Amino acid sequence: MVLVKEYQVLLPCSVEEYQVGQLYSVAEASKNNTGGGEGIEILRNEPYEKDGEKGQYTHKIYHIHSKVPGFIQMFAPEGALVFHEKAWNAYPYCRTNWDKCRDQISYWLGKHEALTSN
After folding, report:
1. Integer Cα distance of 45 and 48 in angstroms
2. For residue 117, what pLDDT band results from cuts at 50, 70 and 90?
3. Which pTM value belongs to this model?
4. Which of 12, 14, 28, 58 has the most Cβ atoms closer than 10 angstroms to its Cβ?
């Protein structure tokens, strides 16, 4: 038998106000970490509605070459430190897809089997 306990925290704002604040915080963080060809490139940022679910769809590209340690920069091939993120944010639920990231890592590790074998 499992005992489930639920705790609720009262917020000084409504759920809708919280969602607006969350979107603003993400946009500000993206802006502050972007510059000189590095950071987050936002391709699409638009509302969506599907099957009664309303939210925000974003497609971002993360350029992180200067954000990783030097030894990773030396070994990573061109384009390996660029990741695509597609997110469907319908607060409080969020679905995020990182397929290109997984494909790039699998391809790179496959070419460098010496790094993955025991």
Report:
1. 10
2. very low
3. 0.64
4. 58
Q: 3-state SS string over 4-16?
A: CCCCCCCCCCCHH
Q: Enumerate the domain spans of the chain.
A: 15-116
- Do the strands 82-90 and 93-97 form a parallel or antiparallel pair, or are they unpaired? antiparallel
Residue 109 near residue 102, CB atoms below 8 Å: no
Instruction: Take residue 96 and report the two structure tokens written for it.
Output: 């995020």
In this predicted structure, the answer to whether residue 91 has a pLDDT above a threshold of 70 is yes
Contact 89, 54 (CB under 8 A): no
Give the count of beta carbons closer than 10 Å to the beta carbon of residue 104: 19
How much is the pLDDT for 101? 61
Determine the Cα–Cα distance for residues 23 and 46; give it in Å rounded to an integer.
12
Which residues does residue 94 pair with via DSSP β-bridges, in sequence order?
89
Question: Which H/E stretch holds residue 31?
Answer: helix 15-32
